[in-house]
Design a protein that fits this description.
Shape of chain A: globular
Number of helices of chain A: 6
CATH class of chain A: Mainly Beta
CATH topology of chain A: Pnp Oxidase, Chain A
Strand content of chain A: 35-45%
Oligomer: homodimer
Structural class of chain A: alpha+beta
Number of strands of chain A: 13
Largest sheet of chain A: 7 strands, antiparallel
Radius of gyration of chain A: 18 Å
């Protein structure tokens, strides 16, 4: 199928949502943990997470326009702290369920156990294999569609030993991390291939 | 392994680069096609592509600080036009090779064939199954690390019929799209699971 800009604009709303959210590609899938100023834990599934840089270690996280019942960004504004926890193969359904409009904490509602580490003041997901503690650095409002890009700095990182390669590369297939696709798709990876540094003088080889 | 902010800052540069680029998760993997004002085609592999919204259909693309020899952002500034072409299973090595510092066009150097469509004024990758033509809308300089977020609007979209589900969801595993991981990792997916809209009243089910 082919669509022009006008045809995309004319698509039925849910069809367009599914289409555009999926063709934009595989996504980093995370459970975002936060805590309100009065101590209530929040957990929400996020796919709009982007690598911004390694030094300093920065991530970008896109938040949709805030509506009542959405607590993550509100909590982060209050405390400055958040965690990202990779979703494991087999936990896709529970992760997806955090996106329902819960009154209570999603930890209790869905059945993830919060874990507080001395190293960082926001709740992690107990059992998650890749865990990141982050501090909010800057909000960038995207006026073009009312979303907000949060720039956050990595303060704490946990990666299982068995998926860490000697050069620092974390093999997320070995870690059991799932990728996101579209609004409701969860993808298991099967094969990882790494290539040598690209030079014009020779084809890259497998690492 | 566990790292604090101080320990991350103290890591050897390449180790930190591999580590942070991989723990930030699976990435949307694309070949970005552009054309200079004097008609030279450019092709570069990109993983920092983010879904910003479906209506209007917007993507965010992160560009590292421009150094001599990097042409994509320069071309886009000149013409306003770019394409994103999903990388296919089996073409990972060629895609990776576009990141070498070629003097000539990466299309010629690496062996991808450019394709010009009447519908859009920038070169696509011939044979790519998911193709997007985009118009640059806005540049957001991220002063915190010197990168640039380009906001681009979808003007043309092509998705193979056989991977399009009735509700608009594009099954990228069926399309043969590869995901990115870290600076040099390419991942094939094996299994896609979709779940029903999340409600508090019942567990989500498989679609």
């Amino acid at each position: 199928m082919k669509w022009t800009a006008e045809e995309i604009a004319g698509l039925e709303r849910f069809y367009r949502g599914n289409l555009i959210n999926s063709v934009t590609g595989f996504k980093s899938l995370n459970l975002l943990g936060s805590i309100s100023s009065d101590g209530k834990f929040n957990l929400a599934v996020f796919t709009q997470v982007m690598h911004l840089g390694a030094n300093p270690p920065l991530l970008g996280i896109l938040f949709r326009p805030v509506v009542p019942g959405m607590h993550s960004l509100k909590n982060i504004r209050e405390t400055g702290a958040l965690t990202l926890n990779h979703v494991l193969v087999g936990e896709e359904e529970m992760a997806h369920w955090t996106s329902a409009r819960w009154e209570e904490s999603e930890f209790d509602a869905v059945g993830f156990e919060p874990e507080l580490l001395e190293a960082y003041p926001a709740p992690f997901v107990k059992g998650a294999r890749v865990k990141m503690g982050l501090r909010a650095e800057q909000e960038i409002p995207l006026e073009i569609n009312g979303t907000t890009m949060l720039i956050a700095r990595l303060q704490y990182l946990e990666v299982p030993d068995d998926c860490l390669q000697p050069d620092g590369f974390a093999d997320l297939l070995k870690a059991g991390t799932v990728a996101g696709l579209g609004l409701d798709g969860y993808v298991s990876g099967s094969e990882l291939r790494r290539f040598t540094y690209a030079r014009t003088s020779e084809r890259p080889g497998l690492i």
